[in-house]
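Please, structure for the following, as tokens.
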Amino acid sequence: MCLACPVWSKMLMGKLSESSLDTVEFPHDGPDAMEIVLRIAHLQFDKILDSGLSHVILAQMANLVETHDLYHLIKAFSCRWLEYFCDEITVNSPSIAWVFGEEKMFKDCFIDLVKATNKQDDERGITERCIRELSTPAGIGDVIMSVRGKAIDRILSIFHIAMQGIENDTAMQCVVEESRCYGHRISMITEPLRRLKLLPLPSEGEEISVSVNNVEAELADTMQYPESDEQHEDCYDDIYR
């Protein structure tokens, strides 16, 4: 391994070696990732998992690569390991992509992480606590939560405008059944917001507990209104998306 890894070489050989007789401990290195690295170093390529590594092993591998300067050793295999990487987002995803030199993937993972984070510890998924406990440079967690809040504000601003338009009679007017249409339009906006417990609509900058993904999923099928000069006979059947 000294020939494959400059860090191990310094630890085990020469005047800077930590030990010549005793076993050198690697308490923070994952055994599964270590086995893969050792097999690569011993040219046992036929026994290496070349695709579909779990996020846990990828995180272990990223730690090994970062701490022991192993990127040159695993570079030929990293593309296959990351082939299915973006199918699942975890708190470790951005750091894994960064260590393996995938800049675009890093940006995509960062965006996904912002969208997946919620502030409720009792929900499944990625919570603010997970973000705060990331082993990232100081301030990264604050950036993630700040961008998340701004994204939710941008989405909800659409519904602020829609509600104001209806209340001020500047939105589309149904020329067939105005009263029925009015109630339906209100319900099409308020129902998904009620499911998210976002009624009354929060003011800009107000803390929202759900994630951007939760908001998008609930509001994705909300009615998009036709132009004011269009006639529609039954608002309950003609859903304009």
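Confidence is low (pLDDT under 50) at residues 226-230, 232-241. The CA atoms of residues 9 and 233 lie 79 Å apart.
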